[in-house]
Amino acid sequence: MALALLRNMKDWSLEQDVVSYSAAIGASESASQWSAALSLFDQMESIAPNVVTYSAVMGACGKASWWSLALYHLSKMEALHVLPNLFTFNSAITACANGFQWAQSLALMAELRRTLQPDTITFNALMVALQKAGLWEEAIKLLEELIEETLLPSIISFNSAINAISKCGCRNWSLSLVFLDTMQQMGLQPSIATFGALIGQEGSKWRSVSQLLRVMTTNHLRLNQISASTATTSYSDTNWTSSMHLLGLSRRAGTESGIFLWNGAIAACGDRWTAAIDLLQGLRGRRIADVVSFNAAMERCNEEWKMTCQLYADMYSGGLKSTEISQNSLLRSYGKGTQWEKAFRTSVLRVTSISSNAAVSACEKCSFWDIGLLSLAGSASMQVEPDIIGFAALASACEKANRWLQACTLLQDTKASGLLANVIFCNAATSACVANAWPRALSTFRAMKNRFLQVDLVSHSGAISAAEKAGWWELPYRILAEMEMTQVQADEISFGAAVSACETAQRQQSTARFER
């Protein structure tokens, strides 16, 4: 309406002044037509803008997060000796806050205090800037300062403080609850955004989340999809029943159970794969199942490789495009079912380090070290850098196939690739080298200790077996003593290998005496 009147004034040969432009710019800013507001401001060629005009255009900058433009207009006001008012500063601080410029927001607050008294809106805008920067302690101090200056905090004030706390980790979850209690004592009604921020915090345990949901119901706040979905993610695998309860609660509260809520419930099922399948079937019955739904269900069916394959086929037949997560789940299922041929073919479709590792793992379970090596080499040729997980699976395959020479080669390859060998890889390589390359097995064990890797029972047992092959009876006893010092519990295999080493050494000594 204001824009139309401004155009009509020109058509009717009426003089357009600063008042009419300011009104039109203000109307555009209120309607979130930021580009129109700036365009009108640029049309004021012969008309000097006043503080109302600048405040309106800077309000548009604030809503559009154009912080640099807001600061430009603020400096222009100073050059033209137009004194900014509280609304002008608030708009500039809001623009900087929305543009993640918390330092600029603090500087504007300091400049404002020289001539004006900040209000609740000023504090809220600055708290939003601090919240987005993760400066939760500064945000809390600002809230305390707001209360000390006898200004009435708003819901936005408390929500900004709670959101800032959520960025600092779980150790301050209780502080957020204190703010919730303070809000209610001051007569402020917590909003959906308040509860959403509380529920989404890292330290919110599932029992606390359930309590917050009950408080929302008591306060007649309607559970929305965001709050419900966030609450679902707080339920661990051991609390999947709470996710089911939340689904029912959201429907009783009149909330349309969105896909995010259902997918979160599937993910919360943990190893209860039948429950995940039931939820997925419910989604498919409503014709809203997406690839995330299938991926979550496939992850839950980790040990049921045939079911994972069936879900992948259903997803494909339903016209859903598989993702990297889908294909990696399928590859892992082939590994569980020792279906190395299918794993090898599937890994070619979309080669990533994860898919390559899954294919090698499938070959490892079947002791097909040569196919695993081919898969690893193929991924490298497609510019997918193999990682230590793939090397560890391949070393394990070499161990099972008694391919010690290839295991030695893998040890050299990891060094050449600059990969940091982990305990799993070293253990597999050591075990493969014990029988025919015991010096390499012992050197690998020493290298693990020199690199301060957490050597375990398998590591020690492999070294003892290598010492047995070498006929060294003293070394196994030293290793057993080290195990006791590092609180690694020896088992029958390690004790048996040590005893066998002594017997071998005794036979060698007897043979030597006989020969003399």
From TrEMBL:
- Species assigned in the record: Cladocopium goreaui
Domain of life of the source: Eukaryota
Report the protein name in the record.
Pentacotripeptide-repeat region of PRORP domain-containing protein
Q: Which NCBIfam families match?
A: PPR
Provide any one GO MF term from the record.
mRNA binding
Q: Which PANTHER family does the UniProt record give? A: PENTATRICOPEPTIDE REPEAT-CONTAINING PROTEIN 4, MITOCHONDRIAL-RELATED, RESPIRATORY COMPLEX I CHAPERONE (CIA84), PUTATIVE (AFU_ORTHOLOGUE AFUA_2G06020)-RELATED
Return the PPR repeat spans: 50-84, 119-153, 154-190
